[in-house]
């Protein structure tokens, strides 16, 4: 492909404006600052870019010194998917915990406090909330990121989350349109397919997005999923029938459409990121999210040149690219004038929510007074969650019951290995989506047969039957969810 000069001509600037790239490091590299001067209008942040709130604020100030209206985006759902607190675990429970409480005002307050923290660090676009209805219990990538399996519940909490987040001046990006809940495949690895008919989709998947649009969601993120009832040929991110006809036309949405990460295999392995980006903009997307795994100047240059080349070859209408770029600038203008949140900060609201979300089974339980052994049965983490964020109850229990031991176990011998490691101490078994992992269920069988007094903590979707001397369902694996469980186990 021909490389085009990176001057300030309108076409080149528009091509840069629609990109939302990431980068490596905790300060902005020179190439990124240079691209901001040439027209780049958005930057995506990930856990690798964040060391502390103070460092993050300095980083966003560095970006704004180059371009004062830059959109600084982050994937901060709270709960299992956290970038602000990637090294310690989130101070906020995720969507599933909020759905379990089912108090939309609490959801609004949690989202407002999360937005306040983001805004204080200079972040003004959050790729959240997930509006997916978790209708398939086998879903490997949504799970506790969803408010639940009930459409009406998901819709009211999606609206509350959007309202709360945007009250802090942070734009919400409701995802993953038209709904990623009824999938058994992770789009990070392959292309999922949803075979529901149009009537089911309209009633189930689309209802939360209608609620988000009514609540004023400033952005919507597309899903890399094939929905034959809407478009038999193209995944939603690359589909004009989905993005333009359905989202813009039928649902009347006028805000920014952002793609999910274009480096995900559902797109990259089939179309390549350059061709995929051209097709996405042509289909109606306004911003190309890339950078979760591809975070360098070469990626930005390739995507810029692909868009410019497609316009010059007549494959992408210049007017469509200009419209997309203008929507990015429009959102940037909104964030620049958004109201500063009023009222006091509420740093405790996440723990309040996590405590309310806890479901306790086992009335005759006597709290532990001696240090137990915590056996964490650890599944492979999906890419959205990542494996760098700690989870479980061991760290929180150790603070309450010093001397608490812990180990991580997986596979066919997990139960036997955990029993041996415990060396007779009281066992606390921590699982995550037991219903999706037969080896995990077998490990619990083995533990409970040998040690019926074992405490079981389910930190995923509590689909499997409750069992154990005490069963705690936290509805998520955030740090505050672990703390809420530890408090009950230790009688605090």
TrEMBL record:
SUPFAM superfamilies named in the record: (Trans)glycosidases
Record-linked Gene3D superfamilies: Glycoside hydrolase, family 3, N-terminal domain (3.20.20.300)
Record keywords: Glycosidase, Hydrolase
Keyword Membrane in record: no
One MF annotation (Gene Ontology) recorded for this entry: hydrolase activity, hydrolyzing O-glycosyl compounds
Gene Ontology biological process terms in this record: carbohydrate metabolic process; peptidoglycan turnover
Every Glycoside hydrolase family 3 N-terminal domain range: 39-330
Taxonomic superkingdom: Bacteria
PANTHER family the record matches: BETA-HEXOSAMINIDASE-RELATED, GLYCOSIDE HYDROLASE FAMILY 3 DOMAIN PROTEIN
Record family assignment: Belongs to the glycosyl hydrolase 3 family.
Name of this protein: Beta-N-acetylhexosaminidase
